[in-house]
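If it is no trouble, might I ask you for a protein's amino acid sequence along with its backbone structure tokens?
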Amino acid sequence: MVTRDFSQRSTQTELMDTESISFAEFHDCLRQLETINILTLAYRPTLQWFKRMLADPKSEQLMTVLDIGCGSGDMLRRIQKWMQTRNFTFELVGIDLNPWSKQSAELVTPKDVPIRFETSNLFALDPALRADFIISSLFAHHLTDNELIHFLQWMDAHTMRGWFINDLHRHWLPFYFIKWVVRLLSRNRLIIHDAPISVARAFTASDWRYFLMKADIPKEQTRVEWFFPFRYGISCRKA
């Protein structure tokens, strides 16, 4: 039996990033991932960060939230519900490179919910674009190390108030746990194949401190937090 090394990020690719798949299979994968996200408390880190960031009087002004790698838009829908109960005025925009993400998100997002979805490479967006908050969830581990450093720099340059990354913790326990649990919860081949690889491609706290340093993000503005079960929240509050 080959022992997997968790001291370094895996370079194994996910099917979702490399294979040509049908919209039906892609949409089914995103819908099942939303269920898994609910069961694993995946939305909590991002919502807790917003609670901190919006706990001041300035929160009542119009706010823009940009979600990079938004998938089916499930994180934005959670944010919209949370903000609605607090009477915030906001504009929510989801960006994803895969055009099927926009199609999938619009299919499951109620027409009266004020969320806009766009298909674009984030690095090709208008250089003058600015948003109050930029977030991503389960997106960073799809990037190479160099791409991730570029992404951190891009977020820091395009946000006015702060950014937040919600992603997995690379560790043997969630790797083997999710590897077997998804076989019980799903028959979607993308989830069965990609879920454990996502963990193997993910990060540790020391990884995040290294990438933040390489991206020249001021240390005093950032925070690396661990969330149960095996998630990291990496945040920046702009000065």
User: Anything to note?
Assistant: The first helix runs from residue 15 to 18. The mean pLDDT is 93.
